[in-house]
Amino acid sequence: MPTLTLDVAAFAIRDDDLAVLMRRAGARWELPWARHDGGALDQAAARLAREAAGRVGWLSLAGAFDETDPHPANASLSLAFAALVPHDAADAVPDDHAWRTLGDRDRLQARQQRIADAALALVRDRVDRAPVAFRLLPAAFTLAELQRAHELLLGQRVHKASFRRSLDAAALVEPTGEWRTEGRGRPAQLYRLAKRKRRAAPRSVRFDY
Amino acid sequence: MPTLTLDVAAFAIRDDDLAVLMRRAGARWELPWARHDGGALDQAAARLAREAAGRVGWLSLAGAFDETDPHPANASLSLAFAALVPHDAADAVPDDHAWRTLGDRDRLQARQQRIADAALALVRDRVDRAPVAFRLLPAAFTLAELQRAHELLLGQRVHKASFRRSLDAAALVEPTGEWRTEGRGRPAQLYRLAKRKRRAAPRSVRFDY
DNA sequence: TCAATAGTGTCTGTTAGACATTATGGA
DNA sequence: TCCATAATGTCTAACAGACACTATTGA
Known about the structure:
The structure is a homodimer. Chain A is of the alpha+beta class. In chain A, 25% of the residues lie in helices and 31% in strands. Chain A has helices at 41-53, 110-126, 143-154, 160-170; strands at 4-14, 17-25, 28-30, 33-35, 58-66, 77-84, 97-101, 141-142, 173-180, 188-193.
């Protein structure tokens, strides 16, 4: 009989960079995981993510990995979940948990490395299909923060004027009416994610590979 | 202890439309499934798909579904796989298997309906990220066939000139040198999928939602 | 010759990206 | 005043889609 774990790779923006949540396991670090013995999968994954990362903005299955690679629980199968945490909620993690840089994921055991990789790839792949970048931010954010979240997920710089034009064309955000002063420079207006109005008819077939 | 199945939703082009592979189970129809008791997941899924659908061009995990919905095996968990079958290989399926129209998937039990839906959504979502449309075709194909495969997956018409321009810009296909006469009309040149040369730097951030 | 399909050239409106400029705060 | 950041306007090259046209076969 197979033993099954749920493993979650949670990401948040820390110190202007992407970070992944790990927990201490003796002398090592691991991704949060829990045994699964049946029942509602989504709820079990949500519970695991919430206990480890606090408020979770987004959660999705990212893959399944077998005993080809070693795992902290030696489970015969592990379901990988990707989670995104708003950075204002990322401070309150349990004592034995910590946000670590992406480079640190090579400290994980092989299966959890692959889980973290798959989770990151899933999130990156979905940036332009679903509002995942928003899930790294609080409900109200500046356009500079939103752009930076996209840049961190995409791994490349984004053109400011084009970014804002696209946001405007898609009617994706709406101003809250509030402004935020951050050090020096002109204050930035705060925005929130707007409700979907109409989905734009997609342009032509693209070959992004 | 949870019982686990692998379920595969295999798609192919039949009669100029997308079809999904089902097998007879008594008086009902079901998606091909098999119990899984550990071992290499990808290999087990590939074996299941191959036994049901013959040559399989593409296979990918599409989701995981729990006992919230009924399943032919009453498994507590089912891993959904999406498979694509080239239409020239789709004739040789076992006697108790048949290619059925997409509309027939509401004859499946609820969990397998969701599996088929998730598999179809996955394939559609990946059309512009990976050469999945090619996996519905033989190694050599006409551009009209390739365009039709994209149209079936995307569920909408595609502009011929733009489609070919994009193919050309991406250097995605190369002519085999052979031509095919099909009834009346000018013969069509045959193409094959070209090896990736350079991945074009993706354009700006797009919000396709 | 006609019908049918393959394949291409041209035009136009839209958009991405470069660049510059204005706006508004703190030091 | 100077500097840093926000926000926007203008220009251009690239591209998507419409349309028409040529090319090549079978009936």
